[in-house]
Amino acid sequence: MTFGDFETVLELRRYTLHPGRRDELISLFEREFVEPQEAAGAHLFGLFHSPASPDQFVWLRGFRSMAARRAALESFYFGPVWEEHRSAANATMVDSDDVLLLRPVVRGLASPPPGSGVYLSFGASPSAFAVFETEPSPNDFPQLPVRTDGPFTVSFSRSAAPGSELLEPTARSVLR
């Protein structure tokens, strides 16, 4: 399997954090959660903060299939790393339920064009290097809610479009 195979099922996760706690969560997340999730079968494409939203953490997690998603989430969230660190992570969060479950329309997260900064748009963007739409399969890991008020189209580009949001990568983000 290649890096691009993890674009089959994507979670766009947008966490609202208690004021001033974003860097604390990012530090914990990058130190404790990246490798164990990837060992479980997820791929963490992007870890971001938004200059426009200082109390938000945005991240992307990809899977090879819905079945692989369920297996990876069960392995991680029922495992020892989450058990040890979940209280510290949850203490930074006001809301962790703004989650979209997506499938690709145009693949491109694995090989974005050169440049810096990633712009997230809800809707089609003419300059998008990757476009996703709502995954119609039911959420088979109900312990982690996903939004059902869609459908949604999500675009990633290197340039701003009306209504887009600049995402700046953290130190461990693969998508830069």
From TrEMBL:
Domain NIPSNAP, first and last residues per copy: 11-105
Xref: InterPro entries: Dimeric_a/b-barrel, NIPSNAP
Gene3D superfamilies (alphabetical): 3.30.70.100
Record protein name field: NIPSNAP family protein
